[in-house]
C-alpha cells in the first residue's frame, strides 16, 4: 500500500500509526499538499491527504474512510475501533472531538500563515481557539476521570487513543496548546505515554510554522 501525505498532518499520522500497529507494510509518499499538489491530484482529484492506494490499486480518501478499510482488513479481533455498542459510540465521540479540535487548529494556522495580517479576522480566530480548547478540555476531563494510566475505551489501545494523541501532539507542536502546564494535563500524560511507543515515535514530524508568522 502507498500512504500519501506528510506526518505533520494529524490525519495522515493517525493512518500511519494504525498501519504500523496492525503490522501492515506500506510505502510512504512524503508529499506536501503545497509543493506536490499536482502529484497528489494524480491519485486524489481534491489534492488532499491522506490518500491511501491499496494493494489492488483502489484509491481511498479521508482518514476516517481509510481507517474503516484498515479495520475491515485486520478483522474484528484486531480492529482498533470497537465493533458495536457503548464502547464504539464512546470511541467515535472522542474521535469526533479530537478531529474537530485539530480542524479548528488548522483554521487558526491558515489564518496566521496564509492570510495577510491586515486581513485577518480576529473574532473568527478567537472562535476557532475557543472551540479547539473546549474540545481538548472535554477530552482532558474524561481522561482524568477515567484515570491517566488507562486507555480511553476498554482495556486496550483503540483508535480513540491514536486520534486524540495525534490531534493533541499536532496542536501542541503548532500552537503550543499545553504551554501552560496546568492545561490539559491528563491528556498530555496520555500523549506522553503513547508518544514513547515506536509506532508514534517513528511517525512524529513536528509541524513547521514559517519564521515571522
Describe this structure in words.
This protein has 213 residues and is mainly alpha-helical. The protein has two domains: 2-74, 3-Layer(aba) Sandwich (Glutaredoxin); 85-201, Up-down Bundle (Glutathione S-transferase Yfyf (Class Pi), Chain A, domain 2). The protein has helices at 10-21, 37-41, 63-74, 85-113, 122-146, 159-175, 185-195, 198-201; strands spanning 2-4, 27-29, 51-53, 59-61. A hairpin with a 5-residue loop joins strand 3 and strand 4 (59-61). Helix 4 runs antiparallel to helix 5 (122-146).
The level-1 CATH class of the largest domain: Mainly Alpha
Total DSSP helices: 8
Which CATH architecture of the largest domain?
Up-down Bundle
Largest sheet: number of strands, sense, barrel closure: 4 strands, mixed
Brief overview:
This protein is mainly α. It has eight helices and four strands; from the N terminus they run E-H-E-H-E-E-H-H-H-H-H-H.
Amino acid at each position: 500500500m502507498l500512504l500519501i501525505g506528510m506526518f505533520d498532518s494529524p490525519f495522515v499520522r493517525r493512518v500511519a500509526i494504525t498501519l504500523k500497529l496492525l503490522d501492515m507494510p506500506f510505502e510512504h509518499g512524503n508529499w506536501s499538499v503545497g509543493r506536490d499538489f499536482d502529484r497528489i491530484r494524480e491519485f486524489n482529484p481534491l489534492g488532499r491527504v491522506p490518500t491511501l492506494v491499496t494493494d489492488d490499486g483502489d484509491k481511498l480518501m479521508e482518514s476516517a474512510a481509510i481507517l474503516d478499510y484498515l479495520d475491515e482488513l485486520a478483522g474484528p479481533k484486531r480492529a482498533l475501533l470497537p465493533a458495536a455498542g457503548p464502547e464504539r459510540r464512546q470511541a467515535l465521540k472522542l474521535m469526533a472531538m479530537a478531529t474537530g479540535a485539530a480542524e479548528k487548529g488548522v483554521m487558526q494556522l491558515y489564518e496566521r500563515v496564509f492570510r495577510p495580517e491586515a486581513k485577518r479576522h480576529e473574532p473568527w480566530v478567537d472562535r476557532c481557539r475557543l472551540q479547539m480548547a473546549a474540545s481538548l478540555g472535554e477530552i482532558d476531563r474524561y481522561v482524568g476521570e477515567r484515570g491517566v494510566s488507562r486507555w480511553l475505551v476498554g482495556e486496550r489501545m483503540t483508535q480513540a487513543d491514536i486520534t486524540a494523541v495525534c490531534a493533541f501532539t499536532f496542536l501542541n507542536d503548532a500552537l503550543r496548546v499545553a504551554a501552560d502546564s496546568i492545561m490539559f494535563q491528563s491528556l498530555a500524560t496520555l500523549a506522553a505515554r503513547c508518544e514513547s511507543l515506536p509506532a508514534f515515535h517513528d511517525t512524529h514530524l513536528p509541524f513547521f510554522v514559517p519564521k515571522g508568522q
